[in-house]
Amino acid sequence: MQDDAPGRRRFWNGWRLGGPVALLAIAALIPIMLFAAVSAFRSLERERAQLSAQAVSDARRVSEAVDQEIASDIDDARTLAVQPSLDGPIDLKAFGEVVRREQALHPLWRTVILATPDGNRIFNSRSPSNIGPVVEPDSLRRVVANGEPAIGSIAYAKDWAVPVRAPVIRDGKIKAVVTVVISPAGVKDVIARTRIPGDWITSIVDATGKVVARTHREAEFIGKPASPRALAARQRTTSGLYDGRTLEGVTTVSAFWRSPVTGWSAHIGIPKTLFEAPLRRSIAFLVVGSILALGLTAAFTWGLLRETRRRRAESFALERAQRMEALGRLTGGVAHDFNNLLMIIQGNAEILGRRIADPRAANSLDAIKQATERATRLTRELLTFARGGSPSRAALDVNEAIAGFLGSLRQAVGPEIEVRTLLEPHLPQVTLDRVQFELALLNMAVNARDAMPDGGVLTLSTRRPAPDRVELTVSDTGSGIAPQHLAEIFDPFFTTKPVGAGTGLGLTQVYGMVRQAGGSIDVQSRPGRGTSFVLRLPAAADRRPAPASGPAAPSARPAAPKLRKRAAKPGAVAAAHILLVDDNEAVRAVTAEYLRERSHMVTEAGGADEALAVLARGDVSALVSDIVMPGERDGVDLATEARKRWPSLPVVLVSGYAASAADARAHGFTVLQKPYALDALAELLDGVMAGR
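^ that's the sequence the OP posted. Answer follows.
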C-alpha cells in the first residue's frame, strides 16, 4: 500500500494557513447578506416615500402654475372692463376695435362677449349675430352678486372653452359683464411647461368637477366629470394621495392639490407598475448584493493574506498624520508671532497716518497697509492648507459669525464700498471651522472689492430655504465675471488679476470649506451687473438656534469696576479706563498709544497676575487681553477669572492664533483676530462697554 502521509501533511498545512481565513469569510458573508436584505427593504420604502412626496409637490406646482395663468386671464378681462368705450352709453364699435387688437395678441381667445347683468349678450366678437343668453350663467351670476371677477366652468358652445368674467362697474353699479372665452389648450400648455414625467397622467379639474385639460387621451375626456375617487379625495381635504383609477381604467396612486383661490385641482396619477418598480429593483439589489458579498469575501480573504503590507501602509499613514499635525502646530505658532509683527506694523502705520498730513507719506502708509492685508490673507491661507483638509469644526451660528466679523470685512473693502446685511433670524446652526468661515467671507469680500474699484455695494444675506439647510449669499455690484472664466474660478491658482495682485487661492479655499461641510456653492454673474456666490450649508445635527445669552444673575461677588471718565475730545467716545494686557511690549505700546489718543486712560500689564492685581483696585472700565501669553494663566483663564469676580466687566480678547481664538469663542468671549485695525478695536470696545 502506498503511504499518503506527505499528502495529508500538505492538506493540514494548507488548512492551517487558509482554513481560519475560510471560516472567517463564511462568518463575514452571513451579516453581509442580512445587511443587503435590510438595505433593500429600506431602499424600497424610501423610494416609494420619495415618489409620493414628489407627486404631491408636482401637483402643487401644476396647480399654482394654472392659478397664475388664470390670474393673468382675469387681469386681461379687467383691462377690457375699464375701457372708456364702456363709460357712458356703450360704444360697441369702439369696444370692438379694442377687442380685435387684444385678440390679435391672444391666439387662445375664442371670443369676447359683453353681456347685460341679467345674462343677455349684446356683443360677440366671434359671431356678431349670435346674440342671446350667455352659456354657463352660474359664473355670471357670481360676478353680478359679488362685484368681483370670476372664472367659470368648462362649457361647450361649438367647442370646449372656459369663460373668464369681469364686471363693468360705473358709479358703483354693475353696468355689464365682460367675458373672455379661452381655449383649454392654454391650460394644457401650462401642464407641459411644468415638465411632469410623461408616463404620469396629469389632469386639471375645475370647481364643478369637470376635466379642463389632460395629458392623456384629452379629446375623449375633456368636459366630462373626473373619476369619483378624485372628486371624493378633494372633497375631504385640499391635498394628498389616494388610490385611484383613471377615466381610461388605469390603476394608479394619485396625488392632488386643490387651489384655495379658484377651487380648481391638479391630479397626477402614477401607474401602479411604477410603484412596483422599486420592488423589482430591490430583488435585483439582493442578487447584486449577494454577488458583491462574495466578492467582498474574496477581497477579505486576500486582505488577510496581505496583512503585513496593510500594517506597513497604516504605519506610513500614521507617520504622515503626525507629520501634518506637527506642521500645523509649527505653522500656528509662526502665524501667532507673525500676526503680532503685522499688528505692530499696521498699528504704527495707522497712528502715523493720523499725525502726518503729507500726501506722499500717506501713499507710503497705504502701501504698508495693503502689504499687511496681503500678509494677513497669506497667513490665514497657510493655516488652512497646513491643516491638511481636516479643520476643527463645531456648531456655528452663521448670523452671529457674520456680525462678529463685520468690522474686519468693512476694513478689508474700504470706505468706498457699502457693506449691507440681510440676515434671517432664528437660523439653525451649521458645522464649520469658524476661522475657515471668516477666511471665506474675507476672500469673497476682497474679490468683490477688486471688482468695484469705484465703489459699490457688498451684500451678505442669509435665509433658511429648507428646515435642514442654511443659505448664505454674498453679492456685489461690480464688473462681474466673464462667462468663459466661470468654470475655472474655483481652480487652485486660477486668477484674472495682474501678477502680484492675488494668489488664486481665495475661491479655492471657499470651495474647499463648503465641500468639507457637506454643502454646495453656486455662482451667478453677468458682466457689468455684479456677481453672487450662493453657499448652501447643511444644518448641524442639533438644529436648534443658538441660545441668546441672558442677563447675569444677581451675585454677592464684588461689583464691576466703576467707569472712570475724563473730558472727551470733540467727536471722541466717552473716556474710560482700559486695562490692556499683552506680553508683547511693542504690540501693547502701539495699542495703548492709540487708545490714549482717543482720550481713554490706559493701564498696561504684561501678564494675567499683574492684570488681576490692577482689576482688584476696582476702577477699570473694560479689559482688553491677548490670549496666548506665558505663565500659568493665558488670556482665556484671565477673562474667566475676571468674569467670575466682576460679571458685568466688558471683556475683549485678541489673538493671532486660530486655535486659541476658537477656544475663547467657545467660552462665550468676544474675540478680535490679529492683526486688526485699531479703529475696529475702538468700535468693538464702544459696543461692549455700551452693552451691545
